[in-house]
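Side project, low priority. Logging it here so it doesn't get lost.
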Amino acid sequence: MAKEALQKENKMGTMPMTKLILSMSLPAMFSMTIMAMYNVVDSIFISKYDMDGFTAVSLAYPLQLLLIAASVGTAVGVNSLVSRKLGEKDFKTANSVATHGLLLCSVTYACFLLIGLFAVRPFMEAFSRNPRVIEAGVQYFTCVLCLSLFAIVQIMIEKTLQATGNMIYPMLFQLMGAVVNIIFDPLLIFGIGIFPEMGVLGAAVATVFGQFCGMVFSVVVLFTRSHRIRISFKGFRVNAMIVKNIYAVGFPSIIMQSIGAVMMLGLNAIFQAYDSIVSVDVFGIYFKLQSFVFMPCFGLSQGVMPIIGYNYGARNKARMYSAIKRGVIIAVIIMSVGVVLMWTIPDLLLSMFGDESSFTDVDPQTLREVGEKAFRIISLCFLPAAAGIILTTMFQAVGRGFRSMMMSFCRQLILLLPMAFVLSLTLGVAYAWYAFPIAEFGSLALALVLFVNLVKTDFKDLK
């Protein structure tokens, strides 16, 4: 009887909306902020040890973005389908979707194991002629990609539990991995105490060890605690239709996030064409720092997505619209903080990376000057990006992942890269940064057109 009551009542369909969004988003926002912190701390330690190592990680970061894209994209597909099935009260299918999600982790891992073994060195040699940079990149990313199973499984479990409305455990999984990483980073990079001095490789080992700890914690919680979904492999058979429905949202999400890797590759290629290692490093620093404002917004979207998906499945239009509206307002507030910081203290933000002894090919003063101008220009894209993130989440939540993919194509390939190339060619590489706000406003315009179309068609039938 208690189990039936648990299945019938779900806070995503009853709790006051602002309170619901905050209760579900704050844990994810906190954990994503911690993730941003350990990514930045990781880069700060590497830059303090060796700026060539930081350049290597910046150049090869698209490989890590591809890993994140495949892992998160597949997990987003599972999250969307699970939340919709829970909204429809189809608990058996929701359980099966969650089980399929874990099995799909092995497919994702096999791909990145092969990349880690065979593609890292050719990738680094294609983007750098500096042997120190090449070796640092090979060490770091071979380790991270070949041992990526830990991160892949943890991400899948996080998204699956978030689909049920449980945001606390996913926060704790991420928090454990981040804390372990932050603790072991300086110990293994600089060789403190009993630990050997491993340099850039030490940062990779600390990252993987943190992911391993987070994965173990998540697996224990998944199989020893009571949840709204239950994973069981007893009598399990792969259902092609479930896999298809997972990737109906998941594949566009993978493509959408992979486009970010292509964008980074393209911009680094433009900077390299102008022999601007300074711009490569500035872009690498920016990409780490911007996560402090984007990661909380992504955490917000993690809380908003199952709410939208659940109420879409329950055909409750008023609550679904309420979640979208409040999500946009909160996202704009978060991004406004980022704009203020980028305009008021860019010099302080840049000063955290590198010191006089770690610079070899880059003049630190030039890096500060280029970085301050770039930060102020790029931050103009933050406010339109806030609305774009929530609309992207909405498309994914209601099973329209292709529209999210269209937005990313528009932002990063159709607008950003061509604009960066044209501006660099006509006005100079220093003007490439204006491509960011131009692309973000263009993408938001497309998102609004797609949203209005959905309102006039599919959403008309909701109650």
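Brief comment: The chain has one domain: 14-461.
Revisit when time allows.
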